[in-house]
Amino acid sequence: MQTSSKSNSFLLSTPFRVALGGIVCAVFFATTTTGCGPSRVASAQADTVAAGKLRAALVSTSNNQATAEVSVKTGTGWGSLKGQFVFAGTPPAAKPLAVDKDTEICSKAGVKLLDRSLLVDASTKGLANVVVFARNTTRVKEPAAPETPVVFDQKQCEFLLPVLAARVGQSIDVHNSDPIGHNTNIAGSAFNQLVPAGQGTLYKPNAETGLPTMVTCNIHPWMKAYAVFRKDGYVAVSATDGSFTIPDLPAGEMLEFQVWHERAAGPSGALGLNNKDLKWTPKGRFQVTIAADEVKDIGAIEVPVSAIN
Q1: What are the extents of the domains in the chain?
Q2: Per-residue pLDDT tens over the stretch 171-212
Q3: Which of 141, 178, 180, 187 could lock onto 248 through a cystine, CB 3.0 to 4.6 A?
Q4: How far apart are CA 286 and CA 248, in angstroms?
């Protein structure tokens, strides 16, 4: 009995009673809203109406921001880019080509064929055959009408277009106006065909060229030209006075353009210039943003002798 009395005394000791009371209180609080001791505030309940309004406001703000970001990125409307390349210096005299076959046609009336890799207009100093194309765009304006075939003719044993530019899938009339046969070989493509005298054939490029690719005639090795094909069609070749225009470009977004010339000193023919306003790089790239319905004129772009090989 003495032992039992000590055991009961231990069980009912003050620390044990406190612990037991805490357990009972916790169980009681879990099953009531009042808890133990003085009256307490009931547990918080979610205000579903207010939460719904807040969620809707946040989603709306997020959507508006996303729409604004997309609008800034893609812009709206269309515009055009124009400019002129001017050679700042005295170009060297063009050298005659080594024509040693079919001379009665290729050197008719004693007219010599000259190297055309650097053509500078005598009066305007315009640099011809500079290629300008958009590197990438978020939108493309499709032609309103079917595009007319590009005529790529051969006459007097030379390609009349030193640089051929077309949209991927556009028809190209590869023609031969000479009374002798020619072979047209577009490097990097499957087009390598004999074009009989006075005839032609249609060709539709099915792949884009990163940079202009060489076109040759296997029969007459001095014949040389270049071809550039772009999926979006945003490409131009400067005319004899150095001018160029690219219409229907996506407006309201930053556009980056690649500039190439056969004789450019940059990598793979890239025309690198020192033009900070256009953020021109040694890789022959510059950036502009065109407003809707704007014809953005980047003016006369000087090409120093040092930029040409």
Answers
A1: 2-71, 76-307
A2: 999 999 999 999 999 999 999 999 999 999 999 999 999 999
A3: 141
A4: 18
Q: What is the DSSP string of 158-223?
A: EES-SEEEEETT--EEEEE-SSS-EEEEETTSS-EEEE-TT-EEEE---S--SS-EEEE-SSSTT-
The model's pLDDT over 84-136, given as tens digits with 9 standing for 90+, comes to 999 999 999 999 999 999 999 998 767 889 999 999 999 999 999 999 999 99
pTM above 0.85, yes or no: no
Give CA angle at 249 (245, 251), nearest 5°: 125
Q: Which two tokens stand for residue 164?
A: 């051929």
- CATH class given for the domain over 76-307: mainly beta
Which distant-in-sequence residues (6+ apart) come within 8 Å of 288 by Cβ? 81, 254, 255, 257, 278, 296, 298
